[in-house]
Design a protein that fits this description.
Number of domains: 2
Number of strands: 12
CATH topology of the largest domain: Rossmann fold
CATH class of the largest domain: Alpha Beta
Radius of gyration: 20 Å
Strand order of the largest sheet: 7-8-9-12-11-10
Structural class: alpha+beta
């Protein structure tokens, strides 16, 4: 058996240690993230074959957090785990495509092994720096504006540099200076990288919600998107 690449969503603590101890007996490598937000970011950057979710961590996630990973939960094999402190045992709670997997070994062997490792990426991203004027408000008043650039873009969205505070699932209105059609594009914040928290570019991952045909066609003609 080849090593299976899994990702575990679980906050730090005894439950996490119990899951990782159990995973040592399986032919797999496990990446750990503490929340659904980090899960989304990790799945966008690296290929995986299955997702393990601690029940308590999942229950404490906000509606917005659950919303941004809904696609992943529908695409990847998923299993929910519950750690019992009294017995130091792990209960397997089937979820999504992982139904019929009563143990972690069964989950890995039956659901994950034959699942092609893949990242969560609908469109390929290309590094491109458009000049952008954006706002949290639908009315682009000067006091609401932030002048920024895209770090990368695809047909489905882009990553915008920003040091402001954002929330996942909220809307952003922005104008790309290089496009002839200056109709504000409406995007939805799918993930947010805070300034000063990690050694990465701060900003927001955007999914296009409203973009005119002329704008999309111009982006295609310029070969920025594929």
């Amino acid at each position: 058996m080849m090593s299976v690449k899994l990702i575990l969503v679980c906050k730090e603590g005894n439950a996490r240690q119990a899951y990782l101890k159990e995973a040592k007996y399986l032919d797999c490598t496990v990446t750990v993230v503490p929340s659904f937000t980090e899960l989304f970011q990790e799945l966008r950057s690296a290929p995986y074959q299955g997702i393990m979710i601690d029940l308590i961590t999942g229950m404490k996630a906000s509606r917005e957090e659950k919303g941004i990973v809904q696609e992943a939960l529908e695409v990847f094999p998923v299993v929910q785990l519950k750690w019992e402190s009294e017995t130091d045992g792990i209960h397997i709670l089937s979820s999504g495509s992982s139904s019929g997997s009563p143990t972690l070994h069964d989950f890995v062997a039956r659901q994950c092994y034959d699942f092609p490792a893949r990242p969560l990426r609908q469109y390929s991203r290309k590094p491109v720096n458009f000049n952008v004027t954006m706002s949290k408000n639908e009315v682009l008043y000067e006091k609401f504006l932030e002048y920024t650039v895209t770090i990368n873009a695809s047909r489905g969205g882009c990553f915008l540099f920003s040091t402001r505070q954002w929330k996942t699932m909220e809307n952003v209105w922005f104008i790309i200076n290089e496009l002839q059609d200056k109709t504000p594009i409406v995007g939805e914040v799918r993930w947010f990288a805070r300034w000063g928290k990690t050694m990465r570019i701060p900003g927001i991952g955007i999914k296009f919600k409203q973009i005119t045909e002329e704008q999309q066609e111009e982006l295609n003609r310029k070969h920025y998107m594929s």
